[in-house]
């Protein structure tokens, strides 16, 4: 994580862009959670149009979030497992 930060810092192109990226990275969580205001969304979207670094981290976050929520949706006990548990319970009774 630490090396990643150094890398990003070294690649920071122009002055002023850095603070924009900082702001955008703070907005990222809100954007991913769908909690950003429309003003924030506008700022965010216009920034990632020209900033590859932020665009990429947004893509990664979206992907991660998608994986997590996708995983959560699938956390349902499979029927076979339910049967297995029932069988085990019956065995012990
Ligand atoms: Zn940026």
Q: State mean pLDDT (0 to 100 scale).
A: 80
In quaternary terms, these chains amount to single chain
Low-confidence stretches: none
**Helices and strands, in N-to-C order?**
HHHHH
- Category by helix and strand content: mainly alpha
Q: What gyration radius follows from the Cα positions, in whole Å?
A: 22 Å
Distance between the termini: 52 Å
How many domains comprise the coordinates?
A: 1
> Bound compounds, please?
zinc ion
Cα shape: rod-shaped
Number of helices: 5
Structural summary, described in words:
This is Zinc-finger. It comes from Pontibacter saemangeumensis. The chain has 93 residues and is mostly helical. It has one domain (2-92). 82% of the residues lie in helices and 0% in strands. It has helices at 2-11, 17-33, 38-50, 52-73, 79-92. Helix 2 crosses helix 3 and helix 2 runs parallel beside helix 4. The protein is rod-shaped, with a radius of gyration of 22 Å. Residues 20-21, 24, 47, 51, 53-54 line the site of zinc ion.
């Amino acid at each position: 994580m630490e090396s990643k930060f150094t890398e990003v810092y070294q690649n920071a192109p122009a002055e002023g862009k850095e603070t924009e990226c900082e702001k955008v990275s703070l907005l990222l969580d809100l954007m991913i959670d769908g909690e950003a205001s429309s003003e924030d969304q506008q700022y965010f979207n216009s920034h990632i149009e020209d900033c590859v670094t932020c665009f990429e981290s947004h893509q990664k976050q979206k992907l991660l979030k998608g994986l997590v929520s996708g995983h959560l949706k699938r956390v349902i006990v499979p029927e076979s497992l339910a049967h297995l548990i029932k069988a085990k319970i019956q065995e012990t009774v």
